[in-house]
Amino acid sequence: MKKIKETSYERDLNPNLPIVVKGVMGANSKKFTKKFKNEKEYEKWLDKNEGNVEIYQIMNENKIMKKSELKRLINEVINESDDDILKQIKAALPELSKLISSEIGLKTNLQVKIEKGRRAEYYIIFDPTNYASSTGPIGKAIFKELYIKWSGERSSRENTIWFNPKLTYNHPSGGSNGTDFIWNSVWLNLDTNKWIVRK
């Protein structure tokens, strides 16, 4: 094979497999990518175009991964990791419900899901129950909706998930807000699957 200066060659290039060549061609140095059945076919093409092309990468076709395929594989790894963590959180929710009940006597129906934000994905612990109906006449006049909803982020350094315990609410006349719920912060240790609460 005719080697051109500064060309990047795959170390274990198989001359019998399809080859993909990248480079520039012509006086305007137009970029191109060409596929050949094998090394021999590439050499014939190079002989015909010698002096008119500059090759900067040669590799077997099976070593090239499309961006879409790479993205799919990355997403599979991420989703697999997320699924494992979701299972861990779900398994720890009964213990968290006991902690809430011991603090304020409230029986909860806690669940977990993932929500995508603008910059990251968040683990959400929530209770689909609208607790506005449990607040009495004055509470009902103030709250139209009252939900438990905690947003959490993973800390890879400590292998924990930090949750911000909140109650979110909407008013009958419009407007919404949130407030701290029982604790300032709640952590799930992924190594022990135990909760750490901080008041």
Explain how this protein is built:
The protein is 28% helix and 37% strand. The termini are far apart. It contains three helices and twelve strands, in the order E-E-E-H-E-H-E-E-H-E-E-E-E-E-E. The protein is elongated, with a radius of gyration of 29 Å. By secondary structure, it is an alpha+beta fold. It has two domains: 56 residues; 131 residues, no CATH class.
C-alpha geometry: elongated
**Major sheet:** 8 strands, antiparallel
Low-confidence stretches: 1-6
Annotation field: number of helices = 3
Classification by helices and strands: alpha+beta
> How many domains make up the coordinates?
2
Q: What's the rounded overall pLDDT mean?
A: 84
DSSP strand content: 35-45%
